[in-house]
């Protein structure tokens, strides 16, 4: 279960840095900005490890459903970046 703990610690650290930077931007500009969800995309695999893996271990489901689920999510995220995010920045 160390992998779950490490995943949650990384997410907590990222959240702390994110909120700290938002607070700093708020103090400089006087308004909240740069609150895009795209900053959280790199944490999606860690969220999967932190929340799906414990459920997998608890219920001991048979088969490779976890690997299949992670592979499908990775393909969907990659597809999103290739179709939506990258072309947006090339305009």
Structure, explained:
There is one protein chain. Helix content is 77%, strand content 0%. The protein is mainly α and 91 residues long. The protein has one domain. Helix 1 (2-29) runs antiparallel to helix 2 (44-59). The mean pLDDT is 77.
Which characteristics define this entry?
91 residues; flat; single chain; 3 helices; mainly alpha; 77% helix
Strand content: under 5%
Distance between the termini: 44 Å
Unreliable spans are none
Major sheet attributes: none
What letter string, H or E per element, gives the SSE order? Answer: HHH
Task: Give the fraction of residues assigned to helices.
Answer: over 70%
Overall shape: flat
Q: What is the count of structural domains?
A: 1
Task: Briefly note the structural class of the backbone.
Answer: mainly alpha
Q: Taking all residues together, what is the mean pLDDT?
A: 77
**Individual helix count:** 3
Number of beta-strand segments: 0
Radius of gyration: 17 Å
What topology emerges from the helices and strands here?
Layout: H1 2-29, H2 44-59, H3 65-90
Short description:
This protein is mostly helical and 91 residues long. It is built from three helices and no strands.
